[in-house]
Amino acid sequence: MTAPVLADALGPRARRRVRVASIAAGLLVLACLAVAVRRLSDRGQLESDKWRPLTEWPVLKFYLGGLVNTLKAAAVAMVIAMAVGGVMALARLARNAPQRWLATLYVEFFRGLPLYLLIIFCWLGLPQLGARLETFWYLVIALSVYNSSILAEIFRAGILSLDRGQSEAAYSVGLGYWQAMGLVVIPQAVRRMVPAIVSQLVTLLKDTSLGVVIFYEELLRRARITGEFFHNPVHAVAMAALFYIAVNSVLSAVARRLEARQRQRYGAGRIDVAGAEDVALTQAEATAKV
Amino acid sequence: MNVVFDNLDVFVAGMRTTVSLTLVSFAAAFVIGVVVAAFRVSPVPPLRAVGAFYVGTVRNTPLALLMVLFFFGFPDVGIQFDSFWVSAVIVLSAYTGAFVGETVRAGINAVSRGQGEAARALGLTFPQTLRVVVLPQALRTVAAPLGSIFIALIKNSALAALISVHELVGNTEDLITDFAQPIPIFLGAAVGYLILTLPSGLMVNVIERRVAIKR
């Protein structure tokens, strides 16, 4: 997106000035790149034998297997987190006070902790509690618990963002609580939540890389193994970054597209909650334009 | 629970490192973010491209990966630091800076057009327009998302433990290995984090209400 606020059509003088600045900035960027390349090549980091093994099919297959493991953990965790998050959101909005308190406690507790801590707890603590599982499940449980608390907030904010009139109208035509929720409120709320959910999915996908600490063979772990094998840790990890960027860019683009479409249709920005890493990028724009 | 009270000093030391990591990284990330946002709205195409590339790459890469990459990468290009704390701060601020940049950019776009037009009509240059007129308004609009990023940073700073910085999670890991009592130690660490994150959340709300622009 170009700058809509700060520059309108440029006149001849401004155009000349921008051209000069462009050339200067371009040269500066090139100079930075040149220095970086120099430093890397001085230390033999750009030699092809550091990179070549990474482009061979068996190694690529190893990486792709890691990516599959990453996606598997992310998918399972996302499904569980959405289910638990949904229940918690409904419980936080329930009329029954103890239910509300319990759900609030759950959400506020897990939302305030780093995922890393939860993963370590699952890995070292759950076996002591008698739950001996595969590494995959320790990672998935930690991811689900953490993300369910964030998703619960997204869901709750989504439901609360609907006009009260919707549920009032539903009650007035004789629907019960669950009917009103299921037929009127939730279907509308879900549509508003979609962009936030997709963004959270990107965060979750990135967070699976923490599986590296408990030796789950996701993409980052496999990159580390490859790096140790070929003695090129930096190159191996940089390679993994390309995989992550490819997958996440697509998902991010989808999220942005959905967000834009939603703003067009409903004139409202995306649902957003505190404590989520990737907050709404355009919420501020939306509030300003309303 | 005795194991927690006996090692209270270890938890507190960890919390202190977590706080120092967070505060220093946030300050640096804020500067990076504002610069990146300025790049992305500037009329100069190469700067826009650099900003977009930076945000697009960093935002889509896991923080854990960046930690590992720079842990091995810094020495490879001949940059050595006295402590891993510095490496961790650099990675955390580079990562968070991308998110701050996106948020600030959104804030800049939220400032109404007339403001920029008025500034130009007065003859202010682009940097002046940005610094004197647009950014002060933009930053106030995005106080809430920035607060959210701050809280996320408190939690993300835990990843410094990956490169053996002894912050709260790192110390927790050590204690669990030493005493083999994961459950009480986990609860201790959890309380430590909640002491940091919950008040931050409240503070963010207060600041947001103070600086919010009534429209």
Which helices and strands occur, and which strands form pairs?
The complex is a heterodimer of chains A (290) and B (215).
Chain A: H1 12-42, H2 48-51, H3 57-92, H4 97-111, H5 115-125, H6 135-161, H7 164-172, H8 177-207, H9 219-230, H10 233-266, H11 283-289
Helix pairs in contact in A: 3-4, 3-6, 3-9, 4-6, 5-6, 6-8, 7-8, 8-10, 9-10
Chain B: H1 2-6, H2 8-41, H3 45-59, H4 63-76, H5 84-110, H6 113-121, H7 126-141, H8 143-156, H9 168-179, H10 182-211
Please provide a written account of the structure.
The complex is a heterodimer of chains A (290) and B (215). Helix content of chain A is 75%, strand content 0%. Chain A has helices spanning 12-42, 48-51, 57-92, 97-111, 115-125, 135-161, 164-172, 177-207, 219-230, 233-266, 283-289. The longest helix of chain A has 36 residues, at 57-92. Residues 280-290 of chain A have low confidence and may be disordered. Chain B is an all-alpha fold and 215 residues long. In chain B, α5 (84-110) packs antiparallel against α8 (143-156). The mean pLDDT of chain B is 91. The interface between A and B is large, with 76 and 79 residues.
